[in-house]
């Protein structure tokens, strides 16, 4: 029986927290069965988060800063994994998507991508093997390396559209998966500018404002929205200077109007990409009622919770799935534009030598999510 327990670790572009999920995964014919055992949100130490945000674009940073961040983020991920092992249960292997600090896209092609969070720290403190750098091989094979959620969504939902609203929003629609543009990225920057808050908690600020159509038009003129998929983007593009440049093109904008306009931008660009279909939504944006109301005006939205995957841990469960596939020697085929399925990631041994399961000689065609109850035994 090809079964194991995998911890998935990720911190998205919002840099709000490290999301950790523990999943029981098992192969049954051409189906992967996933039991979501549990998830936690582990905070970054405040100084690490601050250092990280200060080093990200549009700011520059040095090799010294990158080295220190790689170490401190690796340590924070190790601590998060340790918490998950203590609070959620034991695991066989850990998968980490790390912290994206730069996603290099030029003329619509992804040329490189950098995730920090040195896996040696995770392996050293947990004693478990760690599969990390899960995007690089997809990029080397001509893909965008993101969004990898397309792999999970295609196997799980088949014909429905999946939407994840993190710092950047992405969808999986039929045979393509791509970033639609900013999810919460610009909203979070605006909440900081307007109210000194890291995000607009419960969408409190936006409803007091009105959409400024002059600003919305400037923002919607960005050519990114008209690029054909596959495509990906990040906060090295949708950053503070980007927002400031748009604001400079129009008369002064009130704080609440700025929030209302950015809610509209996120909703319009997502809805345009989803073409009026029902979507299964996840990510922190689901917790912003102003954003969800704007989306619901245009789309039939349900959250992934209703289908068994907690909306705030979907990407952590995706990470666990990616780790499971690599651990079992199964190439992954996310619809990111890569030349074909590839074995993703780099593996750091745990306390002992690597003892991996025999490679499974199957094409995975389905992901079945079953609720916790009949827990899967490990082989
Ligand atoms: N209660 C809330 N009200 C409004 N927005 C929220 C709330 N909770 C989370 N968010 C938004 O979700 C973001 C984090 O979402 P997440 O899916 O973790 O993104 P990422 O994958 O980029 O880290 C926060 O930065 C914030 O914008
Ligand atoms: Mg996050």
How do the strands and helices of this protein lay out in sequence?
Elements: E1 3-11, E2 18-28, E3 31-42, H1 46-55, H2 63-87, E4 93-106, E5 109-116, H3 119-126, E6 130-132, H4 136-140, H5 149-157, E7 161-165, E8 168-173, E9 176-182, H6 185-195, H7 213-220, H8 240-247, H9 255-274, E10 278-282, H10 289-296, E11 300-303, H11 314-327, E12 346-348, E13 366-369
Parallel strand pairs: 1-4, 3-13, 4-6, 7-10, 10-11
Antiparallel strand pairs: 1-2, 2-3, 4-5, 6-12, 7-8, 8-9
Helix pairs in contact: 1-2, 2-3, 6-9, 7-9, 9-10
The site of adenosine-5'-diphosphate (ADP) has 20 residues, from helix 6.
Enzyme class: transferase
Organism: Kibdelosporangium banguiense
InterPro entries: Anhydro_N_Ac-Mur_kinase (IPR005338), ATPase_NBD (IPR043129)
Model description:
This protein is of the alpha/beta class and about 375 residues long. It has 2 domains: about 5-155 and about 310-370, 2-Layer Sandwich (Nucleotidyltransferase, domain 5), CATH 3.30.420.40; about 155-305, Nucleotidyltransferase, domain 5 (2-Layer Sandwich). The strands form 2 sheets. Strands 1, 2, 3, 4, 5, 6, 12 and 13 form an 8-stranded mixed beta sheet that branches. It is about 35% helix and about 25% strand. Helix 2 (about 65-85) runs parallel beside helix 3 (about 120-125), helix 6 (about 185-195) packs antiparallel against helix 9 (about 255-275) and helix 7 packs across helix 9 (about 255-275). The longest helix is centred in the first third of the chain and has 25 residues, at about 65-85. Bound molecules: adenosine-5'-diphosphate (ADP) and magnesium ion. This is Anhydro-N-acetylmuramic acid kinase.
């Amino acid at each position: 029986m090809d079964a194991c327990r995998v911890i998935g670790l990720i911190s998205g572009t919002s840099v709000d927290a490290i999301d950790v999920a523990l999943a029981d995964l098992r192969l049954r014919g051409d189906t992967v069965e996933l039991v979501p055992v549990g998830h936690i949100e582990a905070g970054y130490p405040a100084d690490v988060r601050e250092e990280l945000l200060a080093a990200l674009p549009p700011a520059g940073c040095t090799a010294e800063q990158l080295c220190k961040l790689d170490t401190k983020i690796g340590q924070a991920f190790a601590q998060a994994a340790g918490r998950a092992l203590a609070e959620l249960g034991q695991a066989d292997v850990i998968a980490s998507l790390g912290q994206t600090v730069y996603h290099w896209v030029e003329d619509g092609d992804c040329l490189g991508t950098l995730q920090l969070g040195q896996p040696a720290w995770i392996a050293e403190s947990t004693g478990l093997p760690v599969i990390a750098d899960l995007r690089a091989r997809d990029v080397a094979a001509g893909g965008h390396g993101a969004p990898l959620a397309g792999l999970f969504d295609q196997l799980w939902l088949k014909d429905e559209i999946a939407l994840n609203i993190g710092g950047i929003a992405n969808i999986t629609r039929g045979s393509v998966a791509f970033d639609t543009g900013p999810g919460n990225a610009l909203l979070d920057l605006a909440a900081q500018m307007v109210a000194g808050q890291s995000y607009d908690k419960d969408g409190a600020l936006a409803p007091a404002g009105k959409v400024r159509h002059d600003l919305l038009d400037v923002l919607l003129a960005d050519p990114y929205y008209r690029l054909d998929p596959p495509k990906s983007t990040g906060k090295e593009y949708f950053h503070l200077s980007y927002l400031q440049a748009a604001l400079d093109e129009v008369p002064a904008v009130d704080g609440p109007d700025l929030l209302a306009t950015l809610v509209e931008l996120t909703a319009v660009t997502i809805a345009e990409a989803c073409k009026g279909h029902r979507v299964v939504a996840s990510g922190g944006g689901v917790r912003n009622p102003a954003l969800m109301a704007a989306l619901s005006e245009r789309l039939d939205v349900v959250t992934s919770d209703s289908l068994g995957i907690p909306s705030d841990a979907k990407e952590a469960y995706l990470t666990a799935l990616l780790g499971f596939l690599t651990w079992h020697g199964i190439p992954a085929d996310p619809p990111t534009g890569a030349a074909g399925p590839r074995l993703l990631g780099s593996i750091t041994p745990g306390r002992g030598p690597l003892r991996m399961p025999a490679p499974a000689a199957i094409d995975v065609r389905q992901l079945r999510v079953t609720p916790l109850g009949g827990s899967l035994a490990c082989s």
